[in-house]
Amino acid sequence: MKKIAILTGAGISAESGLGTFRAEGGLWAQHRIEDVATPEGFARDPRLVVNFYNARRAQAAKAEPNEGHRALARLEEAFGGEVIVITQNVDDLHEKAGSQKVMHMHGALKSALCAACDHRWPAPLVMAPGDICPACNSPAARPDIVWFGEMPYDMDEIFEHLASADVFASIGTSGNVYPAAGFVAEARRAGAQTVEFNLEPSLQGSQFDDIRIGSASETLPVWVD
Ligand code: BV8
C-alpha cells in the first residue's frame, strides 16, 4: 500500500492567524526560548510558562483551519493508500480540518501532563501552576508540550513511517529544530520522493526533490486536487 508521510510546522497555521516562531515579531521574538520552552524555564518561573501556553491555547481555540489544512484532509480521504500527518504544531487545526491520522510530536495545547506520574488528560482552557493531577492527586500538572531538551513523542513510530513512505512532504517548517529537521534525510534514505512547501527554501531545502514556493493555502490544493 502506498504511503504519504507529511511533516508540518508553524507555517501551515500562519494563515489561520497563529504566530510562527522565527519570523519577524514571531513567538521567539516576544519570549526567549530558554524562558518559555525549556524544563529549566518552567522550573524557574512556572507561572510565566503556563501563561505563555494559556495565551496560545486561547488563540488556537478561536482559530479555524485554512485551505492548506483542508487540502491535507481531502488527500487522506481521497488517496487510495495511507496518509500520516506528523506535526510539530501544538494546535488542533489538522483535526479541525478533518485529518484523522495526526501525530503531535511536540505535544498539544489541548492536553495536560502530570510531571509526577506521566498521566495525560484534556487541559482546561486556563492552567495554573500546581494544578492537581486527576490520577495521582499531585500538584504536578504541566502543559503537555515537548520542550527543548525533551524527547519528542512517538519517535519509533515516526521513523517507521519515514522508512516506509513513498512520498515525504514537508510543509511550513524552517528546518531549524531536530529531530524533525532530519526527517527528509531519513525519507530519502528509504527511497521516498520528497517535496517541500514553503514561502522560501528551508534550511533543509537542498535535500528535497521538489520545492513548491508559496503559501500552503495556495500550493497544497494545487498539489492535492
Ligand atoms: C531533542 C514546543 C533529545 C512547542 C518546540 C541535533 C540533534 C538532535 C537535537 C538537537 C540537535 N541540535 C540541537 C538539538 C536540540 C534541539 C534543537 O533542535 N535545537 C535547535 C534550535 C538547534 N532539539 C530538541 O531539544 C528536541 N529534543 O532533541 O531531544 C533528547 C534525547 C534523549 C533524551 C532526551 C532528549 C525537542 C524539540 C522540540 C522543542 N519544542 N516547541 C511550542 O512551544 O510550540 S520546537 C518549536 O520549533 C515549535 O514547536 C516548532 O514546532 C518548531 C519548529 O519551528 P517551525 O515549525 O519550523 O516554525 P518556524 O517559525 O521556525 O518556521 C516557520 C516556517 O513556515 C518558515 O520556514 C516560513 O517560511 C514558513 N511559512 C510561514 N508562513 C507560511 C509558511 N510556509 C507556507 N505557507 C505559509 N503561509
Automatic annotation (TrEMBL):
Where along this sequence does the record place binding of substrate? 53, 56
Q: Does the keyword Zinc apply?
A: yes
Q: Name one Pfam family in it.
A: SIR2
Does Ribonucleoprotein count among this protein's keywords? no
Domain Deacetylase sirtuin-type: residue ranges: 1-225
Where along the chain is Zn(2+) bound? 114, 117, 133, 136
**Which cofactor does this sequence's record say it needs?**
Zn(2+)
According to the UniProt record, one GO cellular component term is:
cytoplasm
Which amino acids does the record list as binding NAD(+)? 9-28, 88-91, 172-174, 198-200, 216
Q: Where is the active site?
A: 106 (proton acceptor)
CDD domains in the record? SIRT5_Af1_CobB
Q: Which UniProt keywords apply?
A: Cytoplasm, Metal-binding, NAD, Transferase, Zinc
Catalysed reaction, written as an equation: N(6)-acetyl-L-lysyl-[protein] + NAD(+) + H2O = 2''-O-acetyl-ADP-D-ribose + nicotinamide + L-lysyl-[protein]; N(6)-succinyl-L-lysyl-[protein] + NAD(+) + H2O = 2''-O-succinyl-ADP-D-ribose + nicotinamide + L-lysyl-[protein]
As recorded in UniProt, its EC number(s) are 2.3.1.286
UniProt cross-references to PROSITE patterns, sorted A to Z: SIRTUIN (PS50305)
Q: From the UniProt record, which GO molecular function terms apply?
A: histone deacetylase activity, NAD-dependent; NAD+ binding; protein-malonyllysine demalonylase activity; protein-succinyllysine desuccinylase activity; zinc ion binding
Q: How is the cofactor bound?
A: Binds 1 zinc ion per subunit.
Q: What does the UniProt entry state concerning the protein's domains? A: 2 residues (Tyr-53 and Arg-56) present in a large hydrophobic pocket are probably involved in substrate specificity. They are important for desuccinylation activity, but dispensable for deacetylation activity.
Cited PANTHER family: NAD-DEPENDENT PROTEIN DEACYLASE, NAD-DEPENDENT PROTEIN DEACYLASE SIRTUIN-5, MITOCHONDRIAL-RELATED
- Which family is annotated? Belongs to the sirtuin family. Class III subfamily.
Kindly provide the name given to this protein in its UniProt entry.
NAD-dependent protein deacylase
